Predict the structure.
Amino acid sequence: MRELVFATNNQYKTQEVRNLLSNKYKVLNLSDIGCTTDIPETGSTFAENATLKSKYVVDHYHIDCFADDSGLEIEALNQEPGIFSARYSGVKDDQTNLKLVLQKMEGQTNRKARFRTVISLMRGAENFLFEGIINGQINETPTGDQGFGYDPIFVPDGYEQTFAEMSMEQKNLISHRALAMNKLIAFLKEQ
């Protein structure tokens, strides 16, 4: 089984991806390879941030790596929080960020939003990008205790539950990360 690094320390994201790539690759995360650096995300797009992370691991650890940058884009907030989703409030705290979004959405009738993921796969010097998008709505109140981030307020189109009310298996069938990962997996199978 080949090793592939997922440039994250987020255990929820790591487990989601391990479930998606099970029996194909041994997925390691940053702590598994001893990387304690907070890799700067100074890009202005999801693709740039994902590439910065995957390139850092390849350059410093010489292992093929993929990294994602994901975020919530809310139509009524001019696509915010976008690339700043993890630190929208100025701190990396899910509850604080979620509360800020709900505060900014008070009185908004347009609740349209989407989650977007871009994955950068660095194999040596080659970079491959894969994108996944899921459209939905922002709930007025958080519900559910699964997942992380904005999952408790995001209801995907065609569903009545938030991501946080779904099991990991349900979410992995439809999530933005799953959609991007499926494209990555199809690519890896062709190699």
About this structure: The longest helix spans residues 46-61. The two ends are 14 Å apart (CA to CA).
